[in-house]
């Protein structure tokens, strides 16, 4: 039985509590949150013990789940790692690059498991592509949200765009060559809307637009590669694949088009999306990595790399 302690029981923290309760082999020891109103609600609703001493909660657990504001990630993570505890921390990994570098080194020395909460890696629409060979050369992303004060302690880059940066870096097996970026602070002191172009050494180009001041929500990614176009709708949980039809393709909608190279048959496929709870999947994957001594799916290095590109983008915006 793995013992879990949760730091932060606000909006997202409650989702974590609900999912930990459903995972086999897990016991929630307690939580820490300085907000008395939130703490009273959780104690009454879940019957989980509130700890007033951070160290006592960490000492009582095998796993520390960190769902506090980004400003506090490094402090809580470093305490847990130094005590040899496995750590799940919400994205972004830390608030600053020096903090992230220090934390990566601590995790290496402590030989514990850390997973960063880039939950879109577990989105059913993205998981539907797990058997498809992905080698995109052009990527278009739109992640738009209505304004919500929650999460505004960081810029829209670290709040929203970092989800897509993580996925793009996991797909494009190449170093970043150049970054162009523009952003505007409208409702907060940091950029609330931004447009970014990333060029990679292998020739891939990614265009990303993120906004937290939009009238409607959108979370779409389009991948263009030599043999196909892939559309992923993270919000609606839909995936579309368009490519030249192969003789083995079955159960796809197909139509003919005339091209300079003659008639081609285009196939349109919509992979079956298995309904799933992405937060529960990421927590289950984290537990599996601990029990079977496997690398976590989104480890501290992944979290650091996404942060590194995010801060390069912020530097570009600030310079502009």
Q: What are the salient characteristics of this protein?
A:
single chain, 320 residues, alpha/beta, Rossmann fold, Dihydrodipicolinate Reductase, domain 2, 2 domains, nine-stranded mixed beta sheet, five-stranded parallel beta sheet, 9 helices, 33% helix
Give a verbal description of the structure:
Helix 4 runs parallel beside helix 5 (97-110), helix 5 packs antiparallel against helix 9 and helix 7 (156-171) packs across helix 9. This protein has 9 helices and 14 strands. The model has no long low-confidence stretch (mean pLDDT 94). With 320 residues, it is an alpha/beta fold.
Major sheet: arrangement of strands: 7-8-9-6-10-11-12-14-13
Mean pLDDT: 94
The general outline is globular
Can you write the helix and strand succession as a string?
EHEHHEHEHEHEHEEEEEEEEHH
Low-confidence stretches: none
